[in-house]
Amino acid sequence: MREWSRSWNSSKQKRKQRKYRFNAPYHIKQKLLSATLDKTLRKTYKKRSLPIRSGDEVVVMRGTHKGTMGKITKVNLKHMSVYVDNVKVKKVSGQEVNAKIDPSNLKIIKLNLDDKKRMKFMERKKELLSKTTKI
Q1: Sheet containing 49-51: which strands, arranged edge to edge?
Q2: Does domain 14-127 have CATH number 2.30.30.30?
Q3: CA 2 to CA 32: how far, in whole Å?
């Protein structure tokens, strides 16, 4: 039985944390798939992190592929993982395939701003911040 509750606050128990993440609906998982922004992007957009989209350019910050740069080719919400085009893993058969990477191990260098909804969100956040600082 899949149970997920919006009223769940937090827990120290890893099993409950995993249950929350795995059983969350897709609109919540999208927000959980966030990565930190580069320092220059932080200054321009006044945000620390953003949800990852395909087409964003990222750098791998942790793991065996640390320091590798590339574009995001696929975002898998079901498994909560991201595929970067330059990060490859060899299979037993010798075939190279893209490796799954957790978005917490990535840093966004360049945003894909082709999406109009994403642009509206960024502009809306800028307007809210400018209003609050004037008061």
Answers
A1: 49-51, 34-37, 106-110, 57-60, 69-76, 81-90, 96-101
A2: yes
A3: 18
Token pair recorded at residue 105:
């191990």
Assign residue 16 a region: left if phi > 0, alpha if psi is -120 to 50, beta otherwise?
A: alpha
Q: Where are the domains of the chain?
A: 14-127
Adjacent-strand bridge partners of 83: 74, 100
pLDDT in tens, 31-69: 999 999 999 999 888 889 999 999 999 999 999 999 999
Residue closest to 52 by CA, chosen among 63, 41, 66, 37: 37
Look at residue 131 and tell me whether its pLDDT is greater than 80.
no
- pLDDT for the residue numbered 2: 66
Give the residue, 13 or 122, on which the prediction is more confident.
Answer: 13
Alpha-carbon span 90 to 75, nearest angstrom: 20
